[in-house]
Design brief:
The complex is a heterodimer of chains A (472) and B (362).
Chain A (H helix, E strand, L loop, with lengths): L1 H40 L24 H6 L2 H11 L5 E20 L2 E24 L2 E10 L6 E5 L6 E5 L6 E12 L4 E9 L4 H4 L24 E11 L2 E9 L28 E11 L4 E11 L15 E13 L2 E12 L2 H9 L16 E11 L7 E15 L11 E14 L2 E12 L7 E11 L5
Antiparallel strand pairs in A: 1-2, 1-18, 2-3, 3-6, 4-5, 6-7, 7-8, 8-9, 9-10, 10-11, 11-12, 12-13, 13-14, 14-15, 15-16, 16-17, 17-18
Helix pairs in contact in A: 1-3
Chain B lengths: L1 H15 L7 H36 L3 H19 L8 H4 L2 H6 L5 H9 L6 H5 L8 H9 L15 H26 L12 H6 L11 H28 L19 H17 L1 E2 L2 E2 L3 H8 L1 H19 L9 H4 L3 H25 L6
Antiparallel strand pairs in B: 1-2
Classes of the chains: A mainly beta (472), B mainly alpha (362).
C-alpha cells in the first residue's frame, strides 16, 4: 500500500512537471509564432543596445546574460540571433580555488577530553567552470572540481573509534568531481529557463553561494554539512519562471539514499556519490520562490525539498517503511548600504527516523555506521551573518556570524536525543581582497555543544584563494 | 595466570604430539565447524549466562550476585576475544562486531542517556550508538571506572543503571545468538535459502560466491590471524603506551574497568592458536599448521611455539603489585614488558605474512 502511494506520488510529480514544461513550451511556441511577422518587416540593421561590445583586443564579448536578452525588444533579439548564429558555439572558461590553514582544538579520545591543537593545511578546492554556448538561448555549463589537491581514495583518521582508527574514505567523485553538468534552454519571451542535467539545488546558502567571492567566511556555512549535503547538486530537470523580480523553480531530481544517513550528517550522508551510478527509484521534488538574487547578495528565498529515501537503498529489505525527507528553508542574502545580511533557517523532517536508524545499524563492511546509526526525526539549522563592507567595494569586509544546528531536535520511537549534535558555532572574521580576484580570509570560531561535560573548543582558519569569475 | 600457563602448556603437548598430513579441505572443514562455529556457539551460550546473572543481580543486588554477574561477563568475554582471528563473514556483513564490542565506551553520552529520565528498554538500547551498548557498557556498569579498583560498591548502582544493565545484556545476547545462527543455519537472514556460513567457508568452489578455491579460504584464515596479531601489538598494546610514560593513556586501554585487558589480549592470540593448530576446547583436528607442516615441519613447530610465547609475554605484562594493563603502562617495568610483547607479536605477524601466506597457493 505504502509502495503504491509512493509510486503514485512519483507519477503525479512527473505528470505535473511534464504539464508545466508543456505549457511553457506551448507558450513559447505561441509567442514566437506571434512575433514572426514582426521579424520579417524589421530592417536587418543591428541595434546598438545589443551589439557585441568591442574589447581592446577587438574580440566581441559574449552577450548571453539573461538581463540583456530580457531587455531587448523581441524583434531585435531575433535579428541579433540571426547574426550571432555564425559566432556560435562559443566557449568561455572561469576558475576559482583556495587553500586553507587551520588550527583546531580537538580531543585525544572519546573518554579523554584533554585538548590539544591540531594544525592542518589543505589545498581545499580548485574548480574549473566551462560555459559552452550553443545558441543565444541554449548552453551547457559544467564544473570540474579538484578537491584536496589530489585524486584517489582518501585515508581518514577517526579518533573516536576503537583506539583511533585509520579508515579508507569511500568518496568516489569527491576528489575529482563533476558537480555540475547542465543543459540550459532559455525562453526570453516568457522569461523562462529549462535545466536538464546535474545542477545546484536552490535549498541552502552553502549550495547557492558556491563561489568564494560570494561569501566572506572561509566556508559559506560551517554547519550545513551536519544536516544536509554541502554543495548539494543533483541530476534531474528543473523549470524556472521569472515574473518581475520573482523567480519560481520547480524540479524533479535524483533523491537521497537513507542507507548512508548518519548521526553526524543527518540526511547529508545520503547524497549519492559513493557509487558510480545514482539509484533513482526514489526521486525528489524541489521548489523555490526567490525575490531578487540570493546568489548575488540581493535577494530572499523560500525553498522546499521533498523526496523518499527508502527505495534508493541497496539493501532494500532492511527498511520496509517509507523514509521521506522534507526540508523547508528560508534564505536571505541582502545588502543595505554597506551592510550585508546573510542567513538561513532550515527545518527538516525524516519520516520513520527510528526505523531507518535501526535498519542502518546492521549494515556491514564499509557501510558500517559504527556508533553513528541513531537519527533524529526533526532537524533544525539557523544561521545569521552580518558583514560590513568598509570601502563599499568588497575589498575589506569584517563580519560576525552565529550558526546553530540540532539534528536531534525531535526523535521518534526509541531514539534518544543526543545533545552532542546540538551545537553552536560563533565566528568573527575578515575578508580582504588584496588583489583583483585574489583574496585572503580569516576566521575565528568557538564551538559549543549541549552535551554536559563536553568542553568548548576554539578554531582558527586562514584561506588564500582566487576567483577569476569575480569581476564577470 | 597459572591456569592460563597450564592451559597453554597442555595445548602445546596435545598438538605437538600430533603429526598431521591433512589436506587443505580437511583443514578448512575442521576449522570452519569445530573452531569458528564452535566459538560462536559458545559465545551465544555465554551471553545467555551473562543475561541470567545480570538479571539475578538486578533483582537482588548484593556482593555475591554482583560477583556472579562480573564473572559471567568475564566468561562471555573469553569466546568473544577468542574469535578475533576470524572477524570475517556474518560478524562483519551483519554489522555485529561493533554492536557487541565497540571500544571505547562513550561515557559522556551514556551519562546523558541515564540522566534523560527515559525508561531504558532493549528497544531503546538497539537504537543507541554502538559505543553505548555491548560488552564495555556492561563492563563499566558492573565494574566501575577501573582507575583504582575493578569493583564497584552496591550502593553506587542506580535504578537507571539497573535498567540499562538488564536491557544491554538482553541486546548483547540477541546479537550473539544472531551471529551463531548465521554460522550454523543461515548466513543471510534476509535470504531463506542461504546456508550457514560454516558451510560457505567449508565448501569452496566455483559455485561458492565468496570462496572459489581452497586457497581463498586459507588466505582468509591466515589474513585473519595476521590482522589480530597486528591489532593487539600496534593497537591494543602500543597505543595506550604512548611515546613515553608521560603520554601513556588509560582512556585507550580496552577492558580497563574490569582489569581484564591482558586476558582479552591473551585470548585474541589464543584465537590465532586455535586456527593455526585446529584446537578449540576439547576439539582437535588439523589447522593451518598442517599446511605449513607439509612444506616445512620445523617452521610449523616454531610458529606454534612463537604463538604460545606471545601469550606468555602478554600475561607477563601484569604488574606484580596488582592491577592490569591499565596500571602497567604507568610503570617502567610494565612498559618494558609490553614492548617485548609488541616485538614478539610483530615478529609473529611477519612470519605469518612472509612464510605462511605464500604457502596457501602452493
Amino acid at each position: 500500500m505504502t509502495a503504491a502511494i509512493g509510486e503514485l506520488k512519483l507519477i503525479m510529480r512527473v505528470i505535473a512537471l511534464s504539464l508545466l514544461l508543456s505549457l511553457q513550451a506551448f507558450a513559447q511556441e505561441k509567442t514566437v509564432n506571434e512575433v514572426t511577422p514582426a521579424v520579417q518587416v524589421v530592417a536587418p540593421a543591428p541595434s546598438p543596445s545589443v551589439s557585441p561590445s568591442p574589447t581592446p583586443g577587438g574580440t566581441p564579448e559574449p552577450t548571453t546574460n539573461m538581463e540583456a536578452e530580457k531587455s531587448a525588444p523581441v524583434s531585435t533579439v531575433m535579428v541579433t540571433k540571426a547574426e550571432d548564429l555564425k559566432a556560435f558555439p562559443k566557449f568561455s572558461f572561469k576558475s576559482y580555488g583556495y587553500f586553507t590553514f587551520s588550527q583546531a582544538e580537538t580531543f585525544k579520545a572519546v573518554n579523554d577530553l584533554t585538548k590539544y591543537n591540531r594544525r592542518k593545511m589543505d589545498l581545499a578546492e580548485i574548480a574549473f567552470e566551462g560555459n559552452y554556448e550553443l545558441t543565444p538561448t541554449s548552453k551547457i555549463e559544467f564544473e570540474v572540481e579538484i578537491e584536496h589537491g589530489g585524486v584517489g581514495t582518501a585515508m581518514e583518521f577517526d579518533p573516536f573509534e576503537e583506539f583511533g582508527e585509520f579508515e579508507t574514505e569511500v568518496e568516489k567523485g569527491g576528489e575529482v568531481a563533476l558537480p555540475e553538468f547542465v543543459y540550459k534552454k532559455s525562453f526570453p519571451t516568457t522569461d523562462s529557463v529549462l535545466k536538464v542535467g546535474k545542477f545546484p539545488l536552490f535549498i541552502s546558502i552553502g549550495t547557492i553561494l558556491e563561489k568564494p567571492s560570494r561569501f566572506y567566511a572561509i566556508q559559506a556555512s560551517d554547519v550545513e554539512a551536519a544536516m544536509i549535503p554541502y554543495h548539494w547538486n543533483e541530476l534531474g530537470v528543473q523549470a524556472e519562471q521569472k515574473i518581475w523580480k520573482f523567480t519560481g523553480r520547480l524540479g524533479l531530481v535524483s533523491g537521497l539514499n537513507s542507507e548512508f544517513f548518519r548521526s553526524y550528517s543527518w540526511v547529508g550522508g545520503g547524497y549519492q556519490r559513493q557509487f558510480e551510478n545514482v539509484n533513482a527509484d526514489d526521486l525528489a521534488t524541489v521548489a523555490s520562490l526567490e525575490f531578487g538574487s540570493v546568489a548575488k547578495g540581493s535577494g530572499v528565498g523560500l525553498a522546499y525539498y521533498n523526496g523518499n529515501s527508502q527505495n534508493n537503498r541497496y539493501k532494500k529489505d532492511k527498511l520496509t517503511v517509507s523514509a521521506e525527507v522534507e526540508i523547508w528553508s528560508l534564505l536571505v542574502n541582502y545588502r543595505i548600504w554597506k551592510f550585508q545580511l546573510t542567513g538561513e533557517s532550515l527545518r527538516g523532517t525524516l519520516e520513520n527516523s527510528d526505523k531507518v536508524a535501526l535498519a542502518n545499524s546492521t549494515l556491514g563492511g564499509l557501510a558500517k555506521p559504527k556508533s553513528f546509526a541513531p537519527l533524529g526525526h526533526k532537524a533544525v539549522l539557523d544561521s545569521v551573518q552580518l558583514a560590513y563592507d568598509i570601502f563599499d567595494d568588497n575589498t575589506l569586509v569584517p563580519y560576525v556570524r552565529w550558526e546553530h544546528v540540532n539534528t536531534f531536535d525531535e526523535v521518534q520511537g526509541s531514539i534518544t536525543k543526543y545533545p552532542r549534535y546540538d551545537w553552536t558555532r560563533s565566528s568573527a572574521g575578515l575578508m580582504w581582497a588584496w588583489d583583483q580576484g585574489a583574496f585572503m580570509k580569516f576566521q575565528y570560531a568557538e564551538d559549543r555543544t549541549e552535551l554536559i561535560g563536553m568542553p568548548e573548543t576554539k578554531w582558527f582558519g586562514l584561506a588564500f584563494g582566487f576567483d577569476i569569475a569575480k569581476f564577470n | 595466570m597459572k591456569a592460563l600457563k597450564l592451559m597453554t602448556a597442555a595445548l602445546a603437548l596435545v598438538i605437538g604430539g600430533q603429526a598431521s598430513a591433512a589436506s587443505n579441505q580437511e583443514i578448512i572443514t575442521h576449522v570452519s565447524y569445530n573452531v569458528i562455529t564452535a566459538t560462536y556457539v559458545e559465545l551465544a551460550q555465554a551471553t545467555v549466562s551473562l543475561k541470567q546473572a545480570v538479571d539475578i543481580f538486578v533483582q537482588n543486588p548484593n556482593e555475591a550476585t554482583l560477583a556472579q554477574a562480573q564473572n559471567a561477563w568475564r566468561g562471555a568475554r573469553m569466546p568473544w576475544e577468542a574469535s578475533e582471528a576470524f572477524l570475517f563473514g556474518p560478524v562483519d556483513s551483519l554489522g555485529i562486531d561493533p554492536m557487541l564490542d565497540t571500544w571505547p565506551l562513550n561515557r559522556l553520552d551514556l551519562d546523558a542517556v541515564l540522566a534523560s529520565g527515559r525508561t531504558i528498554t532493549p528497544e531503546m538500547i538497539r537504537s543507541l550508538g554502538t559505543n553505548l551498548q555491548g560488552f564495555h557498557t556492561i563492563e563499566y556498569l558492573l565494574f566501575g571506572d577501573g582507575v583504582h579498583s575493578n569493583t564497584k560498591p552496591i550502593s553506587a548502582f542506580t535504578a537507571k543503571q539497573f535498567e540499562y544493565l538488564s536491557s544491554t545484556a538482553q541486546v548483547e545476547m540477541e546479537h550473539a545468538a544472531a551471529l551463531a545462527y548465521a554460522w550454523t543455519n543461515r548466513w543471510n537472514p534476509e535470504d531463506a535459502s542461504s546456508p550457514g556460513y560454516s558451510a560457505i567457508l567449508a565448501q569452496p568452489g566455483w559455485n561458492n560466491q565468496f570462496y572459489t578455491s581452497e586457497a581463498a579460504v586459507l588466505e582468509e584464515l591466515v589474513k585473519g590471524m595476521m590482522a589480530i596479531a597486528d591489532e593487539v601489538a600496534n593497537g591494543k598494546i602500543a597505543d595506550p603506551l604512548g611515546g613515553d610514560i608521560n603520554s601513556a593513556n588509560m582512556a585507550l586501554v580496552e577492558s580497563p574497568f574490569s582489569w581484564n585487558s591482558l586476558n582479552d589480549f591473551t585470548f585474541n592470540i589464543r584465537s590465532i592458536y586455535s586456527v593455526y593448530t585446529g584446537t578449540y576446547r576439547t576439539s582437535q583436528g588439523p589447522g593451518v599448521k598442517a599446511l605449513v607442516e607439509r612444506h616445512d615441519p620445523q617452521l610449523a613447530q616454531q610458529i606454534e611455539q612463537h604463538i604460545l610465547g606471545c601469550m606468555q609475554l602478554i600475561q607477563a605484562i601484569r604488574p606484580a603489585g596488582g592491577g592490569d594493563f591499565g596500571q602497567a603502562i604507568f610503570t617502567p617495568d610494565g612498559r618494558q614488558r609490553a614492548q617485548q610483547a609488541i616485538q614478539a607479536l610483530n615478529q609473529l605477524h611477519a612470519v605469518l605474512e612472509q612464510q605462511v601466506l605464500p604457502l596457501v597457493d602452493k
